From TrEMBL:
SUPFAM superfamilies: Concanavalin A-like lectins/glucanases. GO terms for biological process: carbohydrate metabolic process. Residues 27-112 form the GH16 domain. It holds the Pfam family Glyco_hydro_16. GO terms for molecular function: hydrolase activity, hydrolyzing O-glycosyl compounds. This is GH16 domain-containing protein. It comes from Jatropha curcas. Keywords: Glycosidase, Hydrolase.
Length: 164
């Protein structure tokens, strides 16, 4: 059994900030859910209004239906964006196989990339070294990604400044 001290308490995330295209995001604090719509305008990005020193983060993610080749639906953790010492951990759903998760982590000293993507042979629908090389068609747009039961660490919060 794992060390009990490593199982940190979590709490529902009730407040978020939306970085761009707010009309493409719908946040419902009551149901603890966020829906993002990807269409001809692009998508949106949400973030916590709080920073956390450490802990356990979780969310149920329902990827969009249809052919999502060329799109990236994800959840990631990062230290202050734009800071030279930025650290980041990514969990990304790429393309139409929503059962495959790609993980990356980046620290100020190194970049590690753990690719878990099946490749397609031939044609423009392929992935080369983790980069999409095909064209994006958006044949099933709009795409809706649902984040539910978003939980963040309890007791390790540090408030962000309003411009963070």
């Amino acid at each position: 059994m794992a060390e009990p001290a490593l199982h940190y308490e979590t709490q529902p995330k009730k407040q978020i900030a939306i970085h761009y295209t707010p009309e493409a995001s719908n946040h419902c604090p009551v149901s603890n859910s966020i829906t993002l719509t990807y269409n001809h305008r692009g998508g949106s990005r949400w973030r916590s209004t709080t920073r956390f020193l450490y802990g356990t983060f979780s969310s149920l993610i329902q990827c969009p239906k249809g052919n999502t080749s060329g799109l990236n639906f994800n959840i990631y953790l990062y230290s202050p964006e734009g800071d030279k010492s930025q650290d980041e951990i990514d969990f990304e759903f790429l393309g139409k196989d929503k059962t495959v998760v790609q993980t990356n982590y980046y620290t100020k000293v190194e970049f590690k990339f753990n690719r878990m993507v099946d490749r397609w042979e031939g044609g423009e629908r392929r992935v080369e070294e983790g980069w999409w090389t095909g064209s994006y068609v958006g044949c099933d747009a709009p795409y809706v990604c649902l984040y539910k039961d978003i939980c963040v660490p309890a007791g390790t919060a540090v408030e962000c400044s309003s411009d963070s």
